[in-house]
């Protein structure tokens, strides 16, 4: 069976440091691994929702599954925060509120940010300490800079800098374009059919589930690729030592 997201996965792998000449077998293997992970997450989310007596799962049922991975939760919170900000200020980039990792890393607070009300959208989780209190303190506009100066964001920027340092102008243009690769953006029906969303489990229609799954699958592909390249480098170093 052919890979459903061949182009998207190839682009994500390129962002993680792979070449553009990736075999179909490798792409299919990556896709199968990602599919297994997504199906597992959907089943777990469905089980968590059922325990609450709910027929549909929410954003929190997905995020709860990796709540101990602080760095990942922080990156996802940043992603959703920028998405909420873009939606609030009605960005004119005709992306209908969509924001991807590339936008998130490059974005900076603008004068149009919701500073007029002295606060900006925040993403709170039910297991956060702040959720234990009935009154929530709104964050000030100047705190928005903390989103892009976090350790997780800085580490990602450092890695991207290393990967692009020796690129030509053409290679960097390709890399910048591929950063927007997504399995879910404008591919909702294909993604739902692929992973069984709506059959295995159903989500609340107004939630950010598709964006969260798109974010997570992109990270999965890049993480798998990065680890595979590390193993490849070790094998090559070992072989060189044997010669």
Could you explain the architecture of this structure?
The longest helix is centred in the C-terminal third of the chain and has 34 residues. Helices cover 57% and strands 0% of the residues. The protein has one domain. The chain is mostly helical and 243 residues long. Helix 1 crosses helix 10 and helix 2 packs across helix 10.
Count of the domains: 1
Q: How would a crystallographer describe the biggest sheet?
A: none
Using DSSP, what is the number of strands?
Answer: 0
Which structural category do the helix and sheet elements fall into?
Answer: mainly alpha
Instruction: Quote the beta fraction.
Output: under 5%
Shape: globular
Average pLDDT level: 82
Distance N to C terminus: 40 Å
Instruction: Give the low-confidence spans.
Output: 107-118
Instruction: Return the string of H and E elements.
Output: HHHHHHHHHH
* Helical segment count: 10
Query: Level of helix content?
Result: 55-70%
Question: Radius of gyration over alpha carbons?
Answer: 19 Å
List the helices and strands and how they pair.
Elements (H helix, E strand, L loop, with lengths): L5 H10 L8 H28 L7 H5 L6 H20 L11 H6 L38 H4 L2 H14 L4 H10 L9 H8 L13 H34 L1
Helix pairs in contact: 1-10, 2-10
């Amino acid at each position: 069976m052919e890979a459903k997201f061949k182009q998207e996965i190839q682009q994500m792998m390129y962002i993680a440091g792979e070449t553009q000449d990736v075999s179909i077998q490798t792409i299919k293997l990556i896709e199968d691994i990602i599919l297994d992970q997504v199906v597992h997450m959907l089943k777990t989310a469905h089980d968590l929702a059922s325990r609450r007596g709910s027929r549909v799962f929410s954003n929190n049922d997905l995020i709860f599954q990796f709540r101990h991975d602080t760095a990942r939760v922080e990156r996802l919170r940043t992603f959703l925060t920028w998405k909420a900000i873009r939606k609030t200020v009605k960005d004119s980039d005709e992306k209908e509120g969509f924001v991807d990792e590339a936008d998130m890393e490059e974005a900076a607070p603008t004068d149009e940010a919701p500073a007029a009300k002295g606060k900006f959208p925040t993403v709170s989780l039910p297991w956060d300490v702040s959720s234990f209190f009935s009154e929530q303190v709104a964050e000030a506009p100047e705190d928005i800079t903390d989103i892009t100066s976090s350790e997780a964001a800085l580490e990602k920027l450092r890695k991207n800098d290393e990967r692009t340092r020796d690129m030509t102008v053409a290679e960097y243009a390709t890399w910048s374009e591929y950063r927007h690769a997504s399995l879910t953006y404008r591919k909702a029906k294909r993604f739902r059919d692929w992973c069984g969303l709506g059959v295995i489990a159903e989500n609340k229609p107004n939630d950010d589930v598709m964006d969260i799954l798109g974010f997570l699958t992109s990270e999965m592909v890049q993480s798998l690729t990065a680890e595979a390249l590390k193993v490849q480098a070790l094998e090559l170093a070992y072989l060189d030592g044997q010669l």
